[in-house]
Write a structure and sequence with these properties.
globular, alpha+beta, 14 strands, two-stranded antiparallel sheet, 16 helices, ten-stranded mixed sheet
């Protein structure tokens, strides 16, 4: 009870550590950041600039300026989160860094980065805004631990063409920003986290990133272990293939100059089910029972440009007879139990994405500016870190009652969820309730703003029409 009653003070102390991130030499805008963070954590829906401002008693324009125009650094917030993670002794071992993306459908391409592109959430190509995100997970703690730590907005290549120049300026996209693929954005994020010194055992990513030989090579050269999901049609060799420039077979045609595989036959990874040794492994306990499935692993070789890379191929047979595949550059002596443990970590970035959307309003952003997206990400990461840290510290301070485990005849008790922490936070920091008069005022304000918006658009249309007439 005491910990719950002090939850509001915990949030205040947490915020005080980050206030300096929102100050400049001339202005201190941290109060708006505190209101925005409080809105993400306590409000149920409609966590937009208007509603957050209304809930906190701050003018919508002030919140909008703070998010869309104020020059505070979202990267600075993320870096401080990473430093606090690094300074937590219990998290020095067992960490996993996961890469994924989050797509949100948009009504038009007038929002920074919005374009026709694949939206995994919808399972189809749609006008969407996509962010490349990094999540830190540590399941060696009994209660489990996960939080977003970094991310970047993906700008499709069309956004760097001449046709988008005016739109880039209007939406505040930095003039020196260059096109980068999602894979390149992922590597940039990983490099920055390595530079921050945040310890982790492996980097994991899905097949969009895992099939990139370039990304796997970057991690290998950086001395980092990866576990990269790959498609079922990925080609591998079961023996190391020799590389070289083939001899010229006849006097006709050009002399070969490119390094190629000289001998050996590549096979698809999904053709190896009968050639590997399967084991049923208990990976971990879950709230619904146990994660216990069949796994297999064998050494394989892949070719990237002029190099042959040796990896583990890790295969998982899931309960619905679905098979998934991953390449891992862990040492040859790595056990199947360890590989299976790593293979099952990716669920938790999906869990982080789900928490961010359902509990923190990640997908409720309605702003168009590039900076607004970066700022919204930074404050969402801050909210995610606050909840993760609260759950972690409470688990340390209030260990599970062994008598309760015996009474319930179980070895696992449910961990607090993000929804649980938010519900407790609302209890100690209740949301403001509107009086009838305030509700009427807000409705009148909305109607007035809509009228002014219509008037402004009509004026714009008249000016455009006059310009066309004058040009003719």
């Amino acid at each position: 009870m005491e910990a719950v009653c002090e939850l509001g003070q915990r949030l205040h102390r947490f915020w005080e550590r980050y206030r300096s991130c929102f100050k400049s030499k001339t202005r201190d805008t941290s109060v708006y950041g505190r209101h925005y963070l409080g809105g993400l954590l306590r409000m149920e829906t409609n966590r937009n600039f208007t509603q957050i401002g209304r809930e906190s008693g701050v003018a919508e324009q002030n919140i909008q300026h703070f998010m869309s125009h104020s020059p505070w650094s979202g990267d600075g917030v993320c870096e401080q989160v990473q430093q606090e993670l690094k300074a937590t002794p219990a998290l020095t071992d067992g960490g996993v860094l996961l890469v994924d993306e989050s797509a949100d459908e948009k009504a038009s391409d007038q929002t920074a980065g919005a374009a026709k592109q694949y939206n995994g959430r919808l399972g189809k190509v749609e006008t969407s805004q996509v962010g490349v995100l990094l999540c830190y997970v540590n399941l060696k703690l009994a209660q489990g631990f996960w939080t977003w730590v970094s991310g970047k907005l993906f700008l499709p290549e069309c956004w760097f063409g001449e046709a988008y120049q005016a739109r880039r300026q209007q939406l505040g996209i930095p003039a020196d920003l260059k096109f980068k693929t999602k894979v390149e954005l992922a590597w940039d994020g990983i490099q920055k986290i390595i530079g921050q010194g945040l310890p982790f055992e492996i980097v994991g990513f899905d097949s969009l990133y895992g099939r990139s030989g370039w990304l796997r090579e970057q991690l290998r050269e950086a001395g980092k272990v990866y576990l990269a999901e790959v498609p079922a049609d990925t080609q591998v060799y079961l023996e190391e293939p020799p590389l070289g420039i083939p001899e010229r077979k006849s006097k006709r045609g050009r002399k070969p100059t490119r390094v190629q595989v000289l001998s050996g036959q590549a096979v698809r990874v999904d053709s190896l089910h009968e050639q590997v040794n399967w084991q049923r492994l208990r990976v971990r306990a879950t709230e619904r029972g146990e994660l216990c499935e069949r796994f297999a692993a064998c050494r394989v070789w892949t070719v990237y440009e002029t190099r042959v890379m040796e990896d583990w191929l890790v295969i998982r047979e899931e309960s619905d007879n679905h098979y998934s595949y991953a390449l891992c550059n862990a040492p040859a002596q790595t056990s199947l139990e360890q590989l299976a443990w790593w293979k099952c970590q990716r669920y938790f970035i999906e869990r982080s994405n789900q928490d961010a959307k359902s509990e923190l309003g990640w997908d409720e952003l309605r702003a168009q500016k590039y900076r607004a997206w970066e700022h919204h990400l930074a404050l969402t990461i801050l909210a995610s870190w606050f909840v993760a840290q609260t759950k972690f510290q409470w688990a340390q301070d209030y260990p599970r009652d062994s008598a309760l485990l015996a009474e319930l005849e179980t070895d696992v008790l449910p961990a607090l969820s993000m929804a649980n922490v938010r519900e407790l936070l609302r209890a100690v920091m209740p949301l403001k309730r509107l009086t009838e008069e305030q509700a009427i005022e807000h409705v009148i304000e909305k109607l007035t703003n809509r009228t002014r918006s219509r008037k402004s658009k009509l004026k714009k249309h008249r000016l455009e029409k006059q310009a066309v007439i004058g040009a003719t």
